[in-house]
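> run fold Crp/Fnr family transcriptional regulator
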Amino acid sequence: MESEICQQTMLPLFAGIRREDLPVMLQCLGSFQKTYHKGEIIFLEGHEVRSVGVILSGTVHMVKEDEEGNQTFLLSMDRGELFGESFSCGSHLDARVSFFAAVPCTVLFLPFYKVIHACKMTCRFHHRLIENMVRMIGDKNVKLMNKIEIISQKTLREKIMVYLRQQAKEQGSSSFTITLGRMELADYLCADRSALTRELSSMKREGLIDYQKNTFQLF
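> ok
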C-alpha cells in the first residue's frame, strides 16, 4: 500500500509533505485503504464514522434517504476530496447521510482522532496535514453552500443556470464538461429527468446555452 500512496503526492491533503515522509505518516496515523465496486456503500446513514475518507480514485456520492426510502443526491466528490469528516470530527459520530461508490473507487481512511492529536514522535509533517485538512473541509463547505444556492431557486431553469454558472466559474471557462450524467444531474437538481431534458432543449433553442452530451457552452 505504501508504494501506491507514495504515487499520490499530488493530492491536496498531502501538499507540502515530502514523498519519503508519507509511509511513516500513514503508519503513524493507522491509515488503511479499501477498494469498492460501483454502487457499494462506504458509509451508511446511522452508522458510526470514525475515519475521514480520502478518494484516491473514482467518485463518491453523498445521498440522504427519507423515511419512505426516497433518496436525495446531495454531493459528488472526486479524486483527492474528503468525505465523512463532518461526522468523524463531531460530538455525534452517527452519519446523517450515506456515501457510496458512484464508480469503482479506492479510498484511504485516516482515523480522525489520530489526525488531530499529535503523536509522541511529534512528526514534523503532522501539523501540515492538519492545516491541509482544515482547508479542504472549508472547501467542502463551499460546495455544500453552492448546492443550497441551487436548490433554493424557484424554477428548474434557474437551478440549471446557477449550476452551470458555478461549473463555468470553477473550471474557468464558459465552455466546460460536467461529470454528472442526465439522471445524476436531475437528482442533484432535485428535478425529474424528463423535465430536465425538456428544459435543456428549450434553453438551447433560445440560445442561452449549447451542449453536446456532458459538454456545455454558456452564452
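The longest strand covers residues 51-57.
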